[in-house]
Backbone:
Protein backbone atom coordinates (compact mmCIF):
# COMPACT_ATOMS: atom_id res chain seq x y z
CA UNK A 1 0.00 0.00 0.00
CA UNK A 2 1.47 3.40 -0.94
CA UNK A 3 1.85 5.95 1.86
CA UNK A 4 -1.17 8.13 2.64
CA UNK A 5 0.81 11.29 2.07
CA UNK A 6 3.65 11.81 -0.41
CA UNK A 7 5.76 14.62 -1.83
CA UNK A 8 5.85 14.28 -5.61
CA UNK A 9 7.23 16.34 -8.49
CA UNK A 10 5.12 18.28 -10.94
CA UNK A 11 5.49 16.85 -14.46
CA UNK A 12 3.61 19.68 -16.19
CA UNK A 13 1.01 22.34 -15.55
CA UNK A 14 -0.78 23.73 -18.60
CA UNK A 15 -3.63 26.00 -19.45
CA UNK A 16 -5.92 23.95 -21.69
CA UNK A 17 -8.56 26.59 -22.32
CA UNK A 18 -9.28 30.10 -21.12
CA UNK A 19 -10.62 28.72 -17.83
CA UNK A 20 -9.24 25.26 -17.33
CA UNK A 21 -5.80 24.03 -16.38
CA UNK A 22 -4.29 20.58 -16.09
CA UNK A 23 -1.69 19.60 -13.53
CA UNK A 24 0.26 16.39 -14.09
CA UNK A 25 1.98 14.90 -11.06
CA UNK A 26 4.76 12.31 -11.19
CA UNK A 27 3.15 9.94 -8.75
CA UNK A 28 3.82 6.47 -10.01
CA UNK A 29 3.03 4.62 -6.77
CA UNK A 30 -0.54 5.96 -6.86
CA UNK A 31 -1.42 5.34 -10.49
CA UNK A 32 -2.37 1.69 -10.26
CA UNK A 33 -4.84 1.84 -7.39
CA UNK A 34 -6.78 5.01 -8.11
CA UNK A 35 -10.41 4.65 -9.19
CA UNK A 36 -12.78 7.04 -11.01
CA UNK A 37 -14.55 9.36 -8.56
CA UNK A 38 -11.72 9.40 -6.02
CA UNK A 39 -9.83 12.57 -5.25
CA UNK A 40 -6.50 13.85 -4.00
CA UNK A 41 -6.07 16.44 -1.26
CA UNK A 42 -3.28 18.80 -2.27
CA UNK A 43 -1.01 21.10 -0.38
CA UNK A 44 0.55 23.39 -2.90
CA UNK A 45 3.18 24.90 -0.67
CA UNK A 46 4.45 24.73 2.90
CA UNK A 47 3.40 27.46 5.25
CA UNK A 48 0.08 28.50 6.73
CA UNK A 49 -1.64 30.37 3.90
CA UNK A 50 -3.83 28.96 2.58
CA UNK A 51 -4.25 26.82 5.67
CA UNK A 52 -6.31 23.90 4.38
CA UNK A 53 -5.33 21.51 1.66
CA UNK A 54 -7.51 21.63 -1.43
CA UNK A 55 -9.44 18.63 -2.81
CA UNK A 56 -9.39 17.74 -6.53
CA UNK A 57 -10.89 14.84 -8.42
CA UNK A 58 -8.47 12.55 -10.17
CA UNK A 59 -8.92 13.49 -13.80
CA UNK A 60 -6.78 10.83 -15.37
CA UNK A 61 -4.22 8.21 -14.42
CA UNK A 62 -2.17 7.66 -17.54
CA UNK A 63 1.56 8.17 -17.19
CA UNK A 64 0.99 10.70 -14.43
CA UNK A 65 -1.77 11.44 -12.02
CA UNK A 66 -3.69 14.31 -13.59
CA UNK A 67 -5.82 16.99 -12.00
CA UNK A 68 -8.10 19.28 -13.98
CA UNK A 69 -8.86 22.57 -12.32
CA UNK A 70 -10.19 26.06 -12.58
CA UNK A 71 -8.38 28.90 -10.78
CA UNK A 72 -11.07 30.58 -8.65
CA UNK A 73 -9.30 31.62 -5.47
CA UNK A 74 -5.99 31.73 -3.61
CA UNK A 75 -5.38 27.96 -3.53
CA UNK A 76 -6.09 27.30 -7.17
CA UNK A 77 -4.25 30.49 -8.24
CA UNK A 78 -1.15 29.26 -6.41
CA UNK A 79 -1.59 25.91 -8.05
CA UNK A 80 -1.58 27.51 -11.47
CA UNK A 81 1.91 28.88 -10.73
CA UNK A 82 3.45 25.43 -10.22
CA UNK A 83 6.13 24.52 -12.75
CA UNK A 84 7.72 21.28 -13.89
CA UNK A 85 9.99 19.95 -11.16
CA UNK A 86 8.26 21.76 -8.28
CA UNK A 87 7.26 19.73 -5.22
CA UNK A 88 3.64 19.03 -4.42
CA UNK A 89 2.31 17.35 -1.28
CA UNK A 90 -0.34 14.80 -2.23
CA UNK A 91 -2.69 13.15 0.26
CA UNK A 92 -4.67 10.26 -1.14
CA UNK A 93 -6.25 9.27 -3.42
CA UNK A 94 -9.13 9.02 -0.99
CA UNK A 95 -12.91 8.73 -1.11
CA UNK A 96 -15.47 6.26 -2.33
CA UNK A 97 -15.27 5.79 -6.13
CA UNK A 98 -18.14 5.50 -8.61
CA UNK A 99 -19.58 2.02 -8.74
CA UNK A 100 -19.36 0.34 -12.11
CA UNK A 101 -22.61 -0.10 -14.08
CA UNK A 102 -24.21 -3.54 -13.76
CA UNK A 103 -24.32 -6.13 -16.59
CA UNK A 104 -27.74 -5.07 -17.86
CA UNK A 105 -26.72 -1.42 -18.37
CA UNK A 106 -26.40 -0.36 -22.00
CA UNK A 107 -26.36 3.42 -21.74
CA UNK A 108 -24.17 5.44 -19.36
CA UNK A 109 -25.02 9.13 -19.10
CA UNK A 110 -22.55 11.53 -17.51
CA UNK A 111 -24.13 14.87 -16.64
CA UNK A 112 -21.65 17.59 -15.75
CA UNK A 113 -21.72 21.31 -15.05
CA UNK A 114 -18.60 23.45 -15.29
CA UNK A 115 -15.59 21.99 -13.50
CA UNK A 116 -17.86 19.09 -12.49
CA UNK A 117 -16.63 17.35 -15.61
CA UNK A 118 -13.32 16.54 -13.89
CA UNK A 119 -14.13 13.05 -12.54
CA UNK A 120 -15.75 11.84 -15.77
CA UNK A 121 -12.79 11.54 -18.10
CA UNK A 122 -11.33 8.73 -16.07
CA UNK A 123 -14.75 7.12 -15.77
CA UNK A 124 -15.04 7.14 -19.55
CA UNK A 125 -11.46 5.81 -19.84
CA UNK A 126 -12.53 2.79 -17.81
CA UNK A 127 -15.97 2.32 -19.38
CA UNK A 128 -14.88 2.61 -23.01
CA UNK A 129 -13.49 -0.94 -22.72
CA UNK A 130 -17.05 -2.17 -22.31
CA UNK A 131 -19.66 -2.24 -25.01
CA UNK A 132 -21.75 0.72 -23.76
CA UNK A 133 -23.31 3.85 -25.16
CA UNK A 134 -21.45 6.64 -23.43
CA UNK A 135 -23.25 9.98 -23.38
CA UNK A 136 -21.98 13.25 -21.95
CA UNK A 137 -24.40 16.08 -21.20
CA UNK A 138 -22.47 19.22 -20.40
CA UNK A 139 -23.62 22.59 -19.14
CA UNK A 140 -21.44 25.70 -19.02
CA UNK A 141 -22.07 29.40 -18.61
CA UNK A 142 -20.85 30.54 -22.02
CA UNK A 143 -18.48 29.61 -24.85
CA UNK A 144 -15.23 30.24 -22.97
CA UNK A 145 -16.48 28.10 -20.11
CA UNK A 146 -17.06 25.02 -22.20
CA UNK A 147 -14.67 22.18 -21.72
CA UNK A 148 -12.63 21.18 -24.80
CA UNK A 149 -14.19 17.80 -25.49
CA UNK A 150 -11.37 16.12 -27.39
CA UNK A 151 -10.61 13.28 -24.97
CA UNK A 152 -14.26 12.43 -24.47
CA UNK A 153 -14.68 12.20 -28.23
CA UNK A 154 -11.67 9.90 -28.40
CA UNK A 155 -13.35 7.72 -25.80
CA UNK A 156 -16.39 7.41 -28.04
CA UNK A 157 -18.76 9.59 -26.03
CA UNK A 158 -21.80 11.16 -27.63
CA UNK A 159 -21.64 14.78 -26.48
CA UNK A 160 -24.38 17.35 -26.02
CA UNK A 161 -23.70 20.85 -24.72
CA UNK A 162 -25.90 23.60 -23.32
CA UNK A 163 -24.81 27.12 -22.38
CA UNK A 164 -26.76 29.73 -20.46
CA UNK A 165 -26.47 32.20 -23.37
CA UNK A 166 -26.65 29.68 -26.21
CA UNK A 167 -23.17 30.59 -27.51
CA UNK A 168 -22.44 26.87 -27.83
CA UNK A 169 -25.04 24.10 -28.14
CA UNK A 170 -28.53 24.49 -26.73
CA UNK A 171 -29.49 27.66 -24.89
CA UNK A 172 -30.30 27.10 -21.24
CA UNK A 173 -29.54 24.69 -18.47
CA UNK A 174 -28.22 21.18 -18.83
CA UNK A 175 -31.76 19.92 -18.15
CA UNK A 176 -32.55 21.07 -21.71
CA UNK A 177 -30.48 18.06 -22.81
CA UNK A 178 -32.38 15.37 -20.92
CA UNK A 179 -34.48 14.80 -24.03
CA UNK A 180 -31.37 13.46 -25.80
CA UNK A 181 -31.12 10.25 -23.84
CA UNK A 182 -32.92 6.95 -23.68
CA UNK A 183 -34.96 6.74 -20.49
CA UNK A 184 -35.22 3.00 -20.00
CA UNK A 185 -34.56 2.44 -16.28
CA UNK A 186 -33.39 -1.14 -16.82
CA UNK A 187 -30.54 -0.23 -19.14
CA UNK A 188 -29.59 3.33 -18.13
CA UNK A 189 -27.19 4.56 -15.47
CA UNK A 190 -26.64 8.25 -14.66
CA UNK A 191 -23.58 9.88 -13.13
CA UNK A 192 -23.60 13.56 -12.25
CA UNK A 193 -21.27 16.21 -10.84
CA UNK A 194 -21.62 19.98 -10.82
CA UNK A 195 -23.27 22.81 -8.93
CA UNK A 196 -25.91 21.69 -6.40
CA UNK A 197 -28.92 23.14 -8.29
CA UNK A 198 -27.88 21.16 -11.35
CA UNK A 199 -27.45 17.94 -9.39
CA UNK A 200 -30.84 18.55 -7.76
CA UNK A 201 -32.38 18.86 -11.24
CA UNK A 202 -30.77 15.59 -12.29
CA UNK A 203 -32.10 13.96 -9.14
CA UNK A 204 -35.64 15.14 -9.91
CA UNK A 205 -35.33 13.92 -13.50
CA UNK A 206 -34.04 10.52 -12.37
CA UNK A 207 -36.87 10.19 -9.90
CA UNK A 208 -39.47 10.95 -12.54
CA UNK A 209 -38.17 8.23 -14.87
CA UNK A 210 -37.06 5.81 -12.13
CA UNK A 211 -33.47 5.98 -13.33
CA UNK A 212 -30.57 4.83 -11.20
CA UNK A 213 -27.62 7.07 -10.73
CA UNK A 214 -24.75 8.35 -8.68
CA UNK A 215 -23.68 11.83 -7.75
CA UNK A 216 -20.21 13.19 -6.90
CA UNK A 217 -20.62 15.92 -4.25
CA UNK A 218 -18.43 18.80 -3.16
CA UNK A 219 -18.04 20.40 0.24
CA UNK A 220 -15.32 22.46 1.86
CA UNK A 221 -12.89 20.05 3.49
CA UNK A 222 -10.28 20.10 6.21
CA UNK A 223 -8.94 16.56 6.68
CA UNK A 224 -10.43 14.57 3.76
CA UNK A 225 -10.02 11.50 5.95
CA UNK A 226 -13.35 11.35 7.76
CA UNK A 227 -11.73 12.67 10.93
CA UNK A 228 -13.03 16.21 11.44
CA UNK A 229 -16.66 15.58 10.41
CA UNK A 230 -16.49 19.03 8.82
CA UNK A 231 -17.68 18.12 5.31
CA UNK A 232 -20.98 16.52 6.28
CA UNK A 233 -24.02 16.84 4.05
CA UNK A 234 -27.61 15.81 4.59
CA UNK A 235 -28.70 12.46 3.24
CA UNK A 236 -31.81 10.37 3.65
CA UNK A 237 -29.93 8.45 6.36
CA UNK A 238 -28.63 11.51 8.28
CA UNK A 239 -25.39 13.42 7.90
CA UNK A 240 -22.64 11.78 5.89
CA UNK A 241 -19.13 12.99 5.16
CA UNK A 242 -18.37 13.90 1.56
CA UNK A 243 -14.72 12.91 1.95
CA UNK A 244 -15.15 9.47 3.47
CA UNK A 245 -18.70 8.23 2.87
CA UNK A 246 -18.58 10.05 -0.50
CA UNK A 247 -17.79 12.00 -2.56
CA UNK A 248 -19.88 9.55 -4.59
CA UNK A 249 -23.37 8.87 -3.26
CA UNK A 250 -26.50 7.26 -4.65
CA UNK A 251 -28.35 9.94 -6.54
CA UNK A 252 -31.54 9.46 -4.52
CA UNK A 253 -29.70 9.56 -1.19
CA UNK A 254 -28.51 13.17 -1.09
CA UNK A 255 -30.76 15.96 0.19
CA UNK A 256 -29.94 19.16 -1.70
CA UNK A 257 -31.29 22.22 0.12
CA UNK B 1 16.56 8.94 27.18
CA UNK B 2 13.46 8.85 29.35
CA UNK B 3 10.34 10.36 27.84
CA UNK B 4 7.60 8.47 29.63
CA UNK B 5 5.03 10.50 31.53
CA UNK B 6 2.23 9.72 33.96
CA UNK B 7 -1.34 10.68 34.81
CA UNK B 8 -2.30 9.30 38.20
CA UNK B 9 -1.17 5.72 38.04
CA UNK B 10 -1.37 5.45 34.26
CA UNK B 11 2.01 5.47 32.48
CA UNK B 12 2.45 6.61 28.89
CA UNK B 13 5.58 5.78 26.93
CA UNK B 14 5.87 9.32 25.59
CA UNK B 15 4.07 12.67 25.92
CA UNK B 16 2.66 12.95 22.39
CA UNK B 17 -1.05 12.37 21.90
CA UNK B 18 -3.81 13.31 19.45
CA UNK B 19 -6.43 15.87 20.47
CA UNK B 20 -10.07 14.84 20.55
CA UNK B 21 -11.99 15.24 17.30
CA UNK B 22 -9.06 15.23 14.94
CA UNK B 23 -8.30 11.59 14.14
CA UNK B 24 -10.32 8.76 12.60
CA UNK B 25 -10.39 5.66 10.47
CA UNK B 26 -6.92 4.56 11.50
CA UNK B 27 -7.21 1.14 9.96
CA UNK B 28 -8.18 2.36 6.55
CA UNK B 29 -5.67 5.14 6.13
CA UNK B 30 -2.76 4.96 8.51
CA UNK B 31 0.29 2.83 8.79
CA UNK B 32 -0.52 1.41 12.20
CA UNK B 33 3.11 0.61 12.88
CA UNK B 34 3.69 4.35 12.88
CA UNK B 35 0.62 5.34 14.90
CA UNK B 36 1.78 2.80 17.50
CA UNK B 37 4.75 5.02 18.24
CA UNK B 38 2.54 7.70 19.81
CA UNK B 39 2.08 7.83 23.56
CA UNK B 40 -1.71 7.76 23.47
CA UNK B 41 -4.79 8.73 21.50
CA UNK B 42 -7.86 10.76 22.48
CA UNK B 43 -10.80 9.91 20.19
CA UNK B 44 -13.71 12.22 19.39
CA UNK B 45 -15.93 13.11 22.36
CA UNK B 46 -18.78 10.68 23.00
CA UNK B 47 -22.15 11.58 24.55
CA UNK B 48 -24.74 9.39 26.25
CA UNK B 49 -27.03 9.27 23.25
CA UNK B 50 -26.15 9.60 19.57
CA UNK B 51 -25.91 13.19 18.29
CA UNK B 52 -26.20 14.15 14.67
CA UNK B 53 -24.21 17.36 14.99
CA UNK B 54 -24.77 20.87 13.67
CA UNK B 55 -26.08 21.91 10.26
CA UNK B 56 -23.46 22.61 7.57
CA UNK B 57 -21.30 24.52 6.82
CA UNK B 58 -19.40 23.22 9.82
CA UNK B 59 -15.89 24.44 9.09
CA UNK B 60 -14.14 27.40 7.58
CA UNK B 61 -10.52 28.26 7.04
CA UNK B 62 -9.19 31.37 8.82
CA UNK B 63 -5.76 33.02 8.94
CA UNK B 64 -3.43 30.27 10.22
CA UNK B 65 -6.30 28.21 11.52
CA UNK B 66 -9.93 27.27 11.25
CA UNK B 67 -13.32 27.53 12.85
CA UNK B 68 -15.36 24.43 13.52
CA UNK B 69 -18.88 23.91 14.76
CA UNK B 70 -19.25 20.16 14.42
CA UNK B 71 -21.55 19.85 17.44
CA UNK B 72 -20.12 16.57 18.78
CA UNK B 73 -21.54 14.33 16.06
CA UNK B 74 -21.10 10.86 17.55
CA UNK B 75 -22.86 7.48 17.72
CA UNK B 76 -23.55 7.58 21.49
CA UNK B 77 -21.69 5.67 24.19
CA UNK B 78 -23.28 2.23 23.69
CA UNK B 79 -22.52 2.05 19.98
CA UNK B 80 -19.11 3.57 20.61
CA UNK B 81 -18.26 0.87 23.14
CA UNK B 82 -19.53 -1.88 20.90
CA UNK B 83 -18.27 -0.80 17.49
CA UNK B 84 -15.49 1.73 17.88
CA UNK B 85 -13.51 0.82 20.97
CA UNK B 86 -12.44 -2.61 19.65
CA UNK B 87 -10.89 -1.10 16.51
CA UNK B 88 -9.29 1.75 18.47
CA UNK B 89 -7.79 -0.78 20.87
CA UNK B 90 -6.34 -2.69 17.95
CA UNK B 91 -4.01 0.24 17.30
CA UNK B 92 -2.22 -0.82 20.44
CA UNK B 93 -1.67 2.51 22.21
CA UNK B 94 -3.32 3.75 25.41
CA UNK B 95 -6.74 5.29 24.91
CA UNK B 96 -7.92 8.39 26.73
CA UNK B 97 -11.67 8.57 26.19
CA UNK B 98 -13.28 11.98 25.88
CA UNK B 99 -16.86 12.17 27.14
CA UNK B 100 -19.55 14.81 27.48
CA UNK B 101 -22.82 14.73 29.40
CA UNK B 102 -25.45 17.43 29.04
CA UNK B 103 -26.03 17.11 32.80
CA UNK B 104 -23.92 15.83 35.68
CA UNK B 105 -26.11 12.75 35.72
CA UNK B 106 -25.35 11.98 32.09
CA UNK B 107 -21.62 12.24 32.78
CA UNK B 108 -22.05 9.70 35.60
CA UNK B 109 -24.08 7.35 33.41
CA UNK B 110 -21.35 7.40 30.75
CA UNK B 111 -18.60 6.76 33.30
CA UNK B 112 -20.58 3.84 34.72
CA UNK B 113 -20.70 2.30 31.28
CA UNK B 114 -16.98 2.89 30.71
CA UNK B 115 -16.22 1.25 34.04
CA UNK B 116 -17.31 -2.02 32.38
CA UNK B 117 -14.75 -1.65 29.58
CA UNK B 118 -11.22 -3.01 29.90
CA UNK B 119 -8.02 -1.31 28.83
CA UNK B 120 -8.94 2.32 29.00
CA UNK B 121 -6.11 4.47 30.34
CA UNK B 122 -8.00 7.59 31.38
CA UNK B 123 -11.20 9.59 30.89
CA UNK B 124 -11.16 13.17 29.66
CA UNK B 125 -14.21 15.19 30.67
CA UNK B 126 -15.06 17.60 27.88
CA UNK B 127 -16.29 20.51 29.99
CA UNK B 128 -15.60 23.02 27.26
CA UNK B 129 -17.22 22.36 23.88
CA UNK B 130 -18.33 25.79 22.61
CA UNK B 131 -20.57 24.43 19.85
CA UNK B 132 -23.55 23.14 21.78
CA UNK B 133 -26.62 25.07 22.78
CA UNK B 134 -25.48 25.45 26.39
CA UNK B 135 -25.62 28.96 27.78
CA UNK B 136 -22.57 28.40 29.94
CA UNK B 137 -19.96 25.70 29.88
CA UNK B 138 -19.11 23.65 32.95
CA UNK B 139 -15.54 24.86 32.52
CA UNK B 140 -16.72 28.46 32.88
CA UNK B 141 -17.53 27.94 36.55
CA UNK B 142 -15.16 26.87 39.31
CA UNK B 143 -18.09 25.46 41.26
CA UNK B 144 -19.60 23.44 38.44
CA UNK B 145 -16.17 22.12 37.45
CA UNK B 146 -15.34 21.06 41.00
CA UNK B 147 -18.75 19.45 41.54
CA UNK B 148 -18.58 17.42 38.36
CA UNK B 149 -14.97 16.33 38.75
CA UNK B 150 -15.65 15.27 42.33
CA UNK B 151 -18.65 13.13 41.43
CA UNK B 152 -16.87 11.47 38.51
CA UNK B 153 -13.76 10.82 40.59
CA UNK B 154 -15.91 9.02 43.14
CA UNK B 155 -16.85 6.30 40.67
CA UNK B 156 -14.27 6.23 37.87
CA UNK B 157 -11.89 3.29 37.81
CA UNK B 158 -9.32 5.21 35.77
CA UNK B 159 -7.65 8.62 36.09
CA UNK B 160 -9.87 11.61 35.28
CA UNK B 161 -8.81 14.61 33.19
CA UNK B 162 -10.72 17.90 33.02
CA UNK B 163 -10.62 19.59 29.61
CA UNK B 164 -10.79 23.33 30.09
CA UNK B 165 -12.08 26.23 28.06
CA UNK B 166 -10.10 29.36 27.14
CA UNK B 167 -13.35 31.33 27.13
CA UNK B 168 -12.95 32.44 30.75
CA UNK B 169 -11.40 35.32 32.62
CA UNK B 170 -8.89 33.19 34.50
CA UNK B 171 -8.31 29.63 33.37
CA UNK B 172 -5.91 28.95 36.23
CA UNK B 173 -8.69 29.30 38.82
CA UNK B 174 -10.77 26.71 36.99
CA UNK B 175 -7.73 24.42 36.80
CA UNK B 176 -7.19 24.89 40.51
CA UNK B 177 -10.83 24.00 41.19
CA UNK B 178 -10.46 20.82 39.12
CA UNK B 179 -7.30 19.87 40.98
CA UNK B 180 -8.96 20.55 44.33
CA UNK B 181 -11.82 18.22 43.36
CA UNK B 182 -9.40 15.41 42.63
CA UNK B 183 -8.73 15.67 38.88
CA UNK B 184 -5.65 13.67 37.90
CA UNK B 185 -4.78 16.08 35.10
CA UNK B 186 -6.13 19.03 33.16
CA UNK B 187 -6.07 19.46 29.40
CA UNK B 188 -6.16 22.81 27.69
CA UNK B 189 -7.17 24.53 25.60
CA UNK B 190 -10.38 23.72 23.85
CA UNK B 191 -11.29 26.09 21.00
CA UNK B 192 -11.96 29.82 21.38
CA UNK B 193 -15.48 30.93 20.52
CA UNK B 194 -15.32 32.88 17.28
CA UNK B 195 -17.20 33.84 14.16
CA UNK B 196 -16.72 34.71 10.51
CA UNK B 197 -19.28 36.79 8.64
CA UNK B 198 -19.85 36.44 4.92
CA UNK B 199 -20.28 40.04 3.80
CA UNK B 200 -21.99 38.99 0.55
CA UNK B 201 -24.81 37.15 2.27
CA UNK B 202 -24.53 39.11 5.55
CA UNK B 203 -24.79 35.80 7.34
CA UNK B 204 -22.46 33.83 9.53
CA UNK B 205 -20.21 31.55 7.50
CA UNK B 206 -21.17 28.64 9.76
CA UNK B 207 -24.48 26.81 10.07
CA UNK B 208 -24.23 27.07 13.86
CA UNK B 209 -23.63 30.84 13.72
CA UNK B 210 -20.55 30.66 15.98
CA UNK B 211 -17.70 28.19 16.02
CA UNK B 212 -14.44 27.41 17.78
CA UNK B 213 -11.09 28.71 16.61
CA UNK B 214 -8.15 26.30 16.52
CA UNK B 215 -4.78 25.91 14.84
CA UNK B 216 -1.55 27.94 14.93
CA UNK B 217 -3.56 31.17 15.27
CA UNK B 218 -4.33 30.31 18.90
CA UNK B 219 -0.94 28.90 19.89
CA UNK B 220 0.60 31.91 21.68
CA UNK B 221 -2.61 32.40 23.66
CA UNK B 222 -2.67 28.74 24.64
CA UNK B 223 1.03 28.65 25.56
CA UNK B 224 0.41 31.52 27.94
CA UNK B 225 -2.63 29.79 29.46
CA UNK B 226 -0.63 26.61 30.00
CA UNK B 227 2.10 28.67 31.65
CA UNK B 228 -0.43 30.33 33.96
CA UNK B 229 -2.06 27.02 34.89
CA UNK B 230 1.34 25.43 35.53
CA UNK B 231 2.05 28.14 38.09
CA UNK B 232 -1.04 27.16 40.05
CA UNK B 233 -1.47 23.37 39.86
CA UNK B 234 0.74 20.35 40.47
CA UNK B 235 -1.21 17.80 38.40
CA UNK B 236 0.02 17.09 34.85
CA UNK B 237 -1.12 19.33 32.01
CA UNK B 238 -2.08 18.03 28.57
CA UNK B 239 -1.43 20.98 26.29
CA UNK B 240 -2.91 21.70 22.90
CA UNK B 241 -3.50 24.59 20.57
CA UNK B 242 -1.90 24.89 17.15
CA UNK B 243 0.91 22.40 17.58
CA UNK B 244 2.30 21.75 14.10
CA UNK B 245 5.97 21.05 14.87
CA UNK B 246 8.25 19.83 17.64
CA UNK B 247 9.27 23.41 18.37
CA UNK B 248 5.64 24.30 19.03
CA UNK B 249 5.31 21.30 21.35
CA UNK B 250 8.52 22.17 23.19
CA UNK B 251 7.16 25.64 23.95
CA UNK B 252 4.28 24.00 25.79
CA UNK B 253 6.58 21.60 27.64
CA UNK B 254 8.80 24.47 28.75
CA UNK B 255 5.67 26.35 29.83
CA UNK B 256 4.77 23.43 32.09
CA UNK B 257 2.95 20.77 30.07
CA UNK B 258 3.69 17.07 30.59
CA UNK B 259 1.74 16.01 27.50
CA UNK B 260 1.27 17.62 24.11
CA UNK B 261 -1.70 16.93 21.85
CA UNK B 262 -1.75 17.51 18.11
CA UNK B 263 -5.17 18.56 16.80
CA UNK B 264 -5.91 20.69 13.78
CA UNK B 265 -2.42 20.03 12.36
CA UNK B 266 -3.56 16.47 11.56
CA UNK B 267 -5.79 17.89 8.84
CA UNK B 268 -2.92 19.62 7.08
CA UNK B 269 -0.17 17.13 7.81
CA UNK B 270 -1.29 13.71 9.03
CA UNK B 271 2.33 12.96 9.92
CA UNK B 272 2.49 15.90 12.34
CA UNK B 273 2.17 13.84 15.57
CA UNK B 274 5.06 11.60 14.55
CA UNK B 275 7.14 14.56 13.40
CA UNK B 276 6.52 16.19 16.78
CA UNK B 277 7.61 13.05 18.64
CA UNK B 278 10.78 12.65 16.57
CA UNK B 279 11.58 16.33 16.94
CA UNK B 280 11.23 16.28 20.73
CA UNK B 281 13.63 13.34 20.89
CA UNK B 282 16.09 15.09 18.58
CA UNK B 283 15.96 18.23 20.75
CA UNK B 284 16.64 16.20 23.87
CA UNK B 285 19.57 14.39 22.24
CA UNK B 286 21.04 17.63 20.98
CA UNK B 287 20.72 19.34 24.36
CA UNK B 288 21.79 16.21 26.26
CA UNK B 289 18.58 16.02 28.27
CA UNK B 290 18.17 12.55 29.74
CA UNK B 291 14.68 12.84 31.17
CA UNK B 292 11.82 14.87 29.75
CA UNK B 293 10.93 15.89 33.30
CA UNK B 294 14.01 18.11 33.20
CA UNK B 295 12.30 20.17 30.50
CA UNK B 296 8.78 20.43 31.88
CA UNK B 297 8.10 23.95 33.17
CA UNK B 298 11.71 25.01 32.69
CA UNK B 299 11.02 28.32 30.95
CA UNK B 300 13.26 30.94 32.54
CA UNK B 301 11.72 34.09 33.87
C1 LIG C 1 -14.27 15.99 -3.79
C2 LIG C 1 -13.97 17.28 -4.50
C3 LIG C 1 -13.43 17.25 -5.77
C4 LIG C 1 -13.12 18.46 -6.41
N1 LIG C 1 -12.58 18.38 -7.66
C5 LIG C 1 -12.22 19.50 -8.29
C6 LIG C 1 -11.60 19.43 -9.56
O1 LIG C 1 -11.37 18.36 -10.10
N2 LIG C 1 -11.26 20.60 -10.16
C7 LIG C 1 -11.48 21.82 -9.56
O2 LIG C 1 -11.11 22.84 -10.15
N3 LIG C 1 -12.07 21.91 -8.38
C8 LIG C 1 -12.44 20.78 -7.71
N4 LIG C 1 -13.02 20.88 -6.47
C9 LIG C 1 -13.23 22.20 -5.89
C10 LIG C 1 -11.92 22.74 -5.37
O3 LIG C 1 -11.52 22.00 -4.24
C11 LIG C 1 -12.06 24.22 -5.00
O4 LIG C 1 -12.24 24.92 -6.18
C12 LIG C 1 -10.83 24.75 -4.34
O5 LIG C 1 -10.70 24.21 -3.06
C13 LIG C 1 -10.89 26.27 -4.24
O6 LIG C 1 -9.78 26.75 -3.54
P1 LIG C 1 -9.28 28.26 -3.74
O7 LIG C 1 -8.35 28.57 -2.65
O8 LIG C 1 -8.78 28.44 -5.12
O9 LIG C 1 -10.61 29.10 -3.63
P2 LIG C 1 -11.41 29.52 -2.31
O10 LIG C 1 -11.25 30.99 -2.12
O11 LIG C 1 -11.10 28.60 -1.21
O12 LIG C 1 -12.86 29.20 -2.81
C14 LIG C 1 -13.48 29.91 -3.84
C15 LIG C 1 -14.94 29.56 -3.80
O13 LIG C 1 -15.13 28.15 -3.91
C16 LIG C 1 -15.80 27.63 -2.77
N5 LIG C 1 -15.11 26.39 -2.38
C17 LIG C 1 -13.90 26.29 -1.78
N6 LIG C 1 -13.56 25.03 -1.55
C18 LIG C 1 -14.57 24.29 -2.02
C19 LIG C 1 -14.82 22.92 -2.06
N7 LIG C 1 -13.99 22.02 -1.56
N8 LIG C 1 -15.98 22.51 -2.60
C20 LIG C 1 -16.85 23.41 -3.08
N9 LIG C 1 -16.66 24.71 -3.07
C21 LIG C 1 -15.56 25.15 -2.55
C22 LIG C 1 -15.65 28.65 -1.69
O14 LIG C 1 -16.75 28.64 -0.80
C23 LIG C 1 -15.60 29.94 -2.49
O15 LIG C 1 -16.87 30.41 -2.78
C24 LIG C 1 -13.36 19.70 -5.79
C25 LIG C 1 -13.90 19.73 -4.53
C26 LIG C 1 -14.22 18.56 -3.87
C27 LIG C 1 -14.79 18.59 -2.50
C1 LIG D 1 -12.82 19.77 13.83
C2 LIG D 1 -12.53 19.75 15.29
C3 LIG D 1 -13.27 18.92 16.13
C4 LIG D 1 -13.04 18.91 17.50
N1 LIG D 1 -13.78 18.08 18.29
C5 LIG D 1 -13.53 18.04 19.62
C6 LIG D 1 -14.24 17.14 20.46
O1 LIG D 1 -15.07 16.36 20.02
N2 LIG D 1 -13.95 17.16 21.80
C7 LIG D 1 -13.00 17.98 22.35
O2 LIG D 1 -12.77 17.93 23.55
N3 LIG D 1 -12.32 18.84 21.56
C8 LIG D 1 -12.55 18.87 20.23
N4 LIG D 1 -11.84 19.75 19.44
C9 LIG D 1 -10.84 20.63 20.06
C10 LIG D 1 -9.44 20.04 19.97
O3 LIG D 1 -9.36 18.79 20.63
C11 LIG D 1 -8.40 21.00 20.56
O4 LIG D 1 -8.67 21.21 21.93
C12 LIG D 1 -8.38 22.36 19.89
O5 LIG D 1 -8.68 22.25 18.53
C13 LIG D 1 -7.03 23.08 20.04
O6 LIG D 1 -5.96 22.34 19.50
P1 LIG D 1 -5.45 22.48 17.96
O7 LIG D 1 -5.25 23.93 17.71
O8 LIG D 1 -4.19 21.68 17.90
O9 LIG D 1 -6.53 21.89 17.13
C14 LIG D 1 -12.05 19.76 18.05
C15 LIG D 1 -11.31 20.58 17.22
C16 LIG D 1 -11.53 20.59 15.85
C17 LIG D 1 -10.71 21.49 14.97
S1 LIG E 1 -13.03 16.83 5.55
FE1 LIG E 1 -12.78 16.08 7.56
S2 LIG E 1 -14.40 14.65 7.65
FE2 LIG E 1 -14.45 15.25 5.60
Residues:
Amino acid sequence: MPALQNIFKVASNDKLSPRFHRLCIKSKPLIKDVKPGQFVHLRVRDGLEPFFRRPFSVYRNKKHLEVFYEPIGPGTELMSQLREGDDIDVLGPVGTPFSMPGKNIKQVVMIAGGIGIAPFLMLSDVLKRRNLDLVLLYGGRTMGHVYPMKEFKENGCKIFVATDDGSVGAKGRVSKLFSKINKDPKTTMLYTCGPNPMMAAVQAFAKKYHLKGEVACEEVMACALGACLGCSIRTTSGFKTVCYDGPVFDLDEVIFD
Amino acid sequence: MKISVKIGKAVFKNPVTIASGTFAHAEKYYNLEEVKKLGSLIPKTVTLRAQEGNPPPRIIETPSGMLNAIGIENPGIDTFIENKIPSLQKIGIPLILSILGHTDKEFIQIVEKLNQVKNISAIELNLSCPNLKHKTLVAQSEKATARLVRSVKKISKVPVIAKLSPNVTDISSIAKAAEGAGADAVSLINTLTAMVINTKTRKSALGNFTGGLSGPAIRPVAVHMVYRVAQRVKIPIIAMGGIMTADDALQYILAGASFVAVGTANFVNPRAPLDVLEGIKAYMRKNKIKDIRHLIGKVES
